[in-house]
Specification:
The complex is a heterotrimer of chains A (295), B (558) and C (286). By secondary structure, chain B is α/β, with parallel strands linked by helices. Chain B is built from 25 helices and 15 strands. In chain B, the strands form five sheets. A five-stranded mixed beta sheet of chain B has the order 2-1-3-14-6. Helices cover 68% and strands 1% of the residues of chain C. Chain C contains 14 helices and two strands. Chain C is globular. Chains in contact: A-B, A-C, B-C.
Amino acid sequence: MPENPPKSIKVLSSLPLNLLLNGVLIVPFIIMIYLAFLKWSPLMGMNWWEAPFYGLQNFARAVSDARFLSALGRTALFVAVSVPLEFVLGLTLAYFMQREFVGKKYTVSLLIYPLMLPPVVVATVFYLFFQPYGPVNNIFLKYLVGEKALDIYWFLDRNLAFITIIIAEIWQWTPFMFLILYSGLSAVPKRLVEAAEVLGASEWKIFWKIRLPLIKQLITIAIILRCLEAFKVFDYIYVMTGGGPGTATESISLYIYRLAIMYSDISYAAAVSLIVLAIIFAVSRIAIKFLLERR
Amino acid sequence: MGNEKDKKFDPSRRQFITTIGTAIVAIGIGYAIGYLTKPAEVVEKAIERTVTVTRTVTATGTPTPTPTPTTPIPGLSEVAVRAINGVKDLIERGVVPRGATLRILHVSGSKAQLEKAIELWSKYVPEIKVELVTMGTEPDVYSKSMSEAVTKTGQYDIITIFSTWLGDTVEAGLAKDITEYFNKYDPGYVGACAPIEPLGSYTTLYKGRRYALTLDSDVFTLTYRKDLINDPKYKEEFRSIYGYDLKVPDTWEEVIDIARFFTEKRLTSPSGGRVWGAYFYVEPAFAAYITFTNIFLEAGGIYFDLETMDPKIDSPEGRYAFDILLKLKPYMPPEAISASWADLYDKFIKGESVLTAAWPSLTKMAISSPDSVVRDKTGTALMPGVRLEIGGKPTIVRAAPNPVNWVGIVNSYGKYPEAAYLFLQFMTAPDIGLEVILSGVILDLFRLCWFTDPAYRGKSIQGYGEEFVDAYMEALKISYPDFIIRGGPEYAGKLTTAVNAVVSGTMDPETALSSVAAEWDSITKRYGVSEQLEAWRALAKLFPDPVQQAWKAKGYIK
Amino acid sequence: MGASSTLSKIVMICILLIFVVWTVIPVMWIVSLSFKPYVEWRTPSLLPRKPTIENYLTLFSPQSVAVFIAYTAILEPIAGPLANSLIVAAVATVIAVIIGFFTAYGASRYNTPGPFTLFFTLMTRMLPPATFLTPLMVYFTTLHLLDNLAGLILLYSATTVTYAIWILKGYIDALPIEWEEAALLEGAKPTEVLWKVVIPLIRPGLVVSGLFIFLMAWTELLFALVLTSVKAVTLPVQVSKYVTAVGALWGVQAAAALLGSIIPVIIGYMIQKHLITGFTFGLVRA
């Protein structure tokens, strides 16, 4: 490829993007950064540009805020458990979808259906599912453990509640992994596959040695994107547990939401958000440098 | 920590300039898009307007209204007549053009009552249209209100809010000071048909000025299974175990006994569910603070010191409240800790709880919902109290929570505040108001004459049942407000989280009390101690008598 | 050959079946909930005992359903929000995919924009949205983009373009470069190269990123809730209104969710044929 990009490509590949991102997002983002250094809340009755400067105090407060730190750790744990599970399950599914069979299109449509529902609705469904009068206790577990199942109160126990959130998350987002992996695997050049088959390689071997390595980049992207999203988990917790019992399942997104919307403590929420952003930024920068930019 | 804003610019000046340049261009384009795609009427409203919000703080005590004389309209109460004449006058003088629209923001799922009000309004004032906009649930209305306070678009003229948010909406500049209109038009807050005190005052005043008209009352009453409590067999059994008669409980200790009695019987409801002795709110989303504050205040506890605004929740009264709740817990359904507020309703009408407490809508549902199995078995009484010695005499201090309570505020940034106020006055008038309330669910009775005046009482009884009407009137008189100061939802929210944590066993009461005290203190400091103290003092004066007496007995007030 | 492959086939079918059942049960629950009358909303039965279509009726003409009078339902029929969502999602997807594609191509082949900018686009997905709402609202108010479909479109495009960029970049990176070089040598203009050579070959990437972006715009709740009030209400916002002050209308919400998922399902079904590109490089070359 020519060393210097042709003019048309240069313009096309940066101008529209700049226009879009800068026009829409930069100004609010800068405002948000500014807010973090103020002592302001709409409840103070003054406009935000008139509010007094507060320096780093919001950040200092965040660092010693136990509820913030535990929400952070909890969310990280959530991501660390959910995303690998989603990946493994998605990969398994994608593997099985390699071959053609009758009704494959319908099966795929069905398997990716969870993505079509707003997360709030999924949260509501699982909320109803795990109620004492819901099907999980009354139907499924009854077959497994009998009458004792009726005494399990999913949302009362901090660990069980956490598990329900993970289940909702996995149910909805495994199809994401599946779809990306499936489409990636399908795009592997046929000749490579055919060549290997001619050489007598088994399907399993083909999968591991040929298909997977070719889509390594795609896998990494999928995992990173999914991790970023999972870290912001909100709907399931909001609807299913309300962060409870106590604050045992409060994710960082829910905490920030509470701060900003319910307590109107916007400056502090902005500071917390920036800290979270910085952490995620650093972690993902390292991950990407390590995984992607070493071609 | 905060240096990432540098990282987003590629390390070249040219890029920097390009970024800024495209940002400016893009903003211009965005502005144009917005301007061109906005409907015309809103564009006009968004033209810059300087709004000075004066929050003058005057002494407490509302001056008696001196209304302007009006021409009566047959069949309509004076309050409503004054409202209508007022509006017609505004139209006449050109202050409000004919064909103007007033927009009301209300919570969704209960349009019937507001629609009734709008229907009646349009009979008398067809020149001004009123439009109803509904939002999801209350938190959505709250956040929309706060957004409106910041963006000042004026797209709503009237907002129905919880009284809990009054402090917030006033301080944010959203709620307009309507003391002037209140005095000019007299919405009937004095006399035989006034909203029952202290509710009429504490839901509409903030730091001594009027900011809202109350549309509703939300006082809790003890709702109980008449059939079970009065059953002679159970009465005998109970007496033999506990040594006193089975009756409607007067104190929380009796509640625990009765709850235990019935829970241990392991009765089954007609729908097959287990019957629990009690169900009081301890859920995490917002209601746990209700039960706690009920017991706390009755025991003589006070939220904040009246001189210093120090939180006084970490006190013997606080410990007592937690003690009661923890003792009550085994006799309440386990879902109480996690389910939503509607679950309490559900359980009672399915016959699965014996003693419970909630808003008037619970009784309405119990006696009229097709799924209710307790239709003629529902009894209403005052909330149980706490035994204290007041002035040397043993007394049972009773107080009833009045959580939430819909009130109507006028948007400071709306186009026609006076007309908006008059709509509120109209829809809360003695005659119109009752009609509005009886056409739906979430707004309930608040004017004294609706309970006592034969002209209105019959209709009230039709809607609620006689026993309820009488008990409810008494409950209103001992009702106490939410945290109607700035940050009210946050104070309540922190308390709710702590109560839920304690009852669910994830925190012990001592830690909870001190952590709530610390959190409350930081909220207070955030808004300014003297500011908060002023609001708190004004509010404390409006608490019901029994509570004030208990505070005196405990030495919290002189 | 015979025995082990049949065994593996059986294992495969079993596992597939488990996945299908696992996916289907909550879906079945939603379907059955949408046909359950009010009294049955809180019962554990998987099928309604008295199926009814009143939930759906409420969606389309809220005034018509008598049973909900005490719980007076919603004001607006669902057609409006449905149309709004469709417009917003469709336009936002088109914008995001187009811009994403160009950026991805430049980034992959020529390193423009540089890696820092690319990484910065990821930042749009890193921030928990709650605090961003207030500044965004203030900004949009000045631009008159509140309660405006255009505002939502711009916002969604901006926040999802990064998906398009990264997914498409993955696909373009995997594309052998010889095709484009050959085309350039034969005198094609760079833009022609894009149109004629690259796009057809990365169709799976285009449809997959398009689908994800569409779904994200279709189901996004928080920003829509804050930025719309009367005229630009989208489907998720409308669905959120079914959890009301007097109790949640589970059945109606389920019905709305199902209706709302029809269009994405159709799209998801239709794109499947584009997921296979029919790479037949080697064989055609000769």
